[in-house]
Specification:
Distance between the termini: 78 Å
Radius of gyration: 35 Å
Number of helices: 1
Strand content: 35-45%
Helix content: 10-25%
Number of domains: 1
Number of strands: 13
Mean pLDDT: 89
Structural class: mainly beta
Shape: elongated
Low-confidence stretches: 4-15
Largest sheet: 8 strands, antiparallel
Length: about 170
């Protein structure tokens, strides 16, 4: 019995030494930084609609007359084949979110449909900034404009043409 107890004690001492030595040589520690950026949700609001005014087509056969309003509000109706009247304005949107964050803006072209004859359409080629940087967090947000232009010809059907923008904002 005494010999058995000595053998168990010796075995325990040997195993204890092995496990301590193995643990000490295998342990390593490394530090890593942790960060998280939290942004407020973007809120997009339409402030005003785009309006190209009223356009009267001149006589004869012609094409390629452009009517447009830039995102900065500059109106063009330079063709001798057109008479443009009425109040014109670019579309205006307001976006709010997190201060100093850049917001990407997407404003694809718009199909305008003649309200008297839905088979007749025009394409509004949009003019929008690619991005804005928010100057505050939350309200009042930052305004941006979207302009656009249409191309007309002597064969353009008369009527009111309308459509909707699909403006998207994203961080």
């Amino acid at each position: 019995m005494r010999q058995s107890a000595r053998a168990i004690t010796a075995a325990a001492a040997l195993l204890g030494g092995l496990s301590c030595g193995a643990g000490a040589s295998a342990a390593a520690t490394q530090v890593a930084q942790v960060s998280a950026t939290v942004a407020k949700p973007l809120i997009l609001t339409r402030v005003q609609d785009l309006d190209l005014g009223s356009i009267v087509l001149g006589p004869g056969t012609w094409s390629g007359a452009t009517v447009g309003i830039s995102r900065t509000g500059g109106f063009t109706c330079a063709s001798a084949n057109l008479i443009c009247t009425g109040a014109t304005k670019p579309a205006t949107y307001n976006v709010s979110g997190t201060n100093n964050r850049a917001v990407q803006i997407t404003a694809p072209n718009v199909t305008l449909v003649n309200q008297s004859d839905p088979t007749k359409t025009l394409t509004l080629v949009t003019d929008a900034v690619a991005s804005v940087t928010l100057t505050n967090s939350g309200p009042p947000g930052t305004n941006f404009n979207v302009g656009g232009s249409i191309s007309l010809s002597s064969s353009t059907a008369a009527g009111t043409y309308s459509g909707t923008f699909n403006v998207t904002v994203d961080y």
